[in-house]
Automatic annotation (TrEMBL):
The keyword Methyltransferase does not apply. PROSITE patterns: ENOYL_COA_HYDRATASE (PS00166). Its EC number is 4.2.1.55. Keywords: Lyase. GO terms for biological process: fatty acid beta-oxidation. Transmembrane segments: none annotated. InterPro entries: ClpP/crotonase-like_dom_sf, Enoyl-CoA_hyd/isom_CS, Enoyl-CoA_hydra/iso, Enoyl-CoA_hydra_C. One of its GO terms (molecular function) is lyase activity. Belongs to the enoyl-CoA hydratase/isomerase family. This is 3-hydroxybutyryl-CoA dehydratase. Pfam families: ECH_1. SUPFAM superfamilies: ClpP/crotonase.
Length: 267
């Protein structure tokens, strides 16, 4: 049976529950599902529903349309931040993504297109990633005069190792779904959007055949490998804040919004 939660508090997301699987869809298609502050708060509320609703056994997070999962944090919002605001913005995103990572019900990111910046960081916070062939992954924040701020420096390193992470973040290059799969960032690659949802549901249905308590313990035990040291996240947020105090940050953001090349001065 399909239940639709019509939660008027959710501005840019919806949640649909079918056969114990909650599908959370980001709905800001005209901005390539960019994660503005309201959408991040929607994700926080959606995760509260996931954690408290016993009808929900597992979760798929995806984006509306066929072009983007999420093209990052909302650059128009970032452009207005000062150092203090940017640090807070980063910590708020980190906080919500930690709720996703630590959820004891399995969560798959069904990556239906661009997963860039905060969108890639959202996919990384999920327990698994299934992607369509046309999906693209990347942390291009340096091109905006900043660095990833929602845990990407930490989780990408955990996922694909230091050397490849440094290359990807410093070049700002995008990975194809095939490259991401070869690096272990993506669990499975499929061709169509229908296959994307089917494959995600197939895996979650298989998992739900086992005991939920054991599954929760698996998630907690595996997460424990990386949980002993939070300093990396704190540093990332501090640097993200510091970057907002530079001229390069504002030049990078304004250049994107004005659809021109940035002129970075190292100031
Ligand atoms: C802590 C986290 C920090 C971050 O995440 S910083 C952000 C990191 N992400 C990025 O740098 C990616 C930004 N987006 C792009 O580079 C491009 O988009 C794409 C390559 C993904 C696609 O390019 P194309 O096909 O030419 O589409 P389009 O015209 O650029 O985008 C369609 C509309 O979507 C808006 N948009 C796209 N990404 C964002 C974003 N991240 N924040 C705010 N708006 C965004 C655009 O501006 C535009 O809008 P309009 O039609 O009104 O001109």
């Amino acid at each position: 049976m399909m239940i639709t939660i019509s939660n008027t508090e959710l501005k840019n997301l919806d949640i649909e529950i079918s056969d114990g699987i909650a599908t959370i869809t980001i709905r800001r298609g005209s901005k390539l599902n960019a994660l503005n502050y309201d959408t991040i708060e929607d994700l926080r509320k959606a995760m509260k529903e996931v954690n408290t609703n016993s009808d929900i056994l597992s979760v798929i997070i995806t984006g509306e349309g066929t072009k983007a999962f999420a093209a990052g944090a909302d650059i128009a919002e970032l452009a207005k931040l000062d150092e203090v605001g940017a640090k807070r913005y980063s910590q708020n995103g980190q906080d919500v993504f930690a709720i996703i990572e630590n959820c004891t019900k399995p969560i798959i990111a069904a990556v239906n297109g661009y997963a860039l910046g905060g969108g890639c960081e959202l996919a990384l916070a999920c327990h698994m990633r299934i992607a369509v062939e046309a999906a693209k992954f990347g942390l291009p924040e340096v091109k905006l005069g900043t660095l990833p701020g929602f845990g990407g420096t930490q989780r990408l390193t955990q996922s694909i190792g230091k050397s490849k992470t440094l290359e990807l973040i410093m070049t700002g290059d995008m990975l194809s779904a095939k490259e991401a799969k070869d690096l272990g960032l993506v669990n499975h690659m499929v061709t169509t959007h229908e296959e994307l949802m089917n494959k995600s549901r197939e895996i979650l249905t298989k998992i739900s055949g086992s005991g939920p308590l054991a599954i929760a313990m698996v998630i907690k035990s595996v997460n424990e490998v990386y949980s002993s040291d939070e300093r990396g996240y704190l540093k990332e947020a501090r640097y993200f804040g510091q970057s907002a105090g530079t001229e390069d940050f504002h030049e990078g953001m304004e250049a994107f919004l004005q659809k021109r090349k940035p002129d970075f001065k190292g100031e």
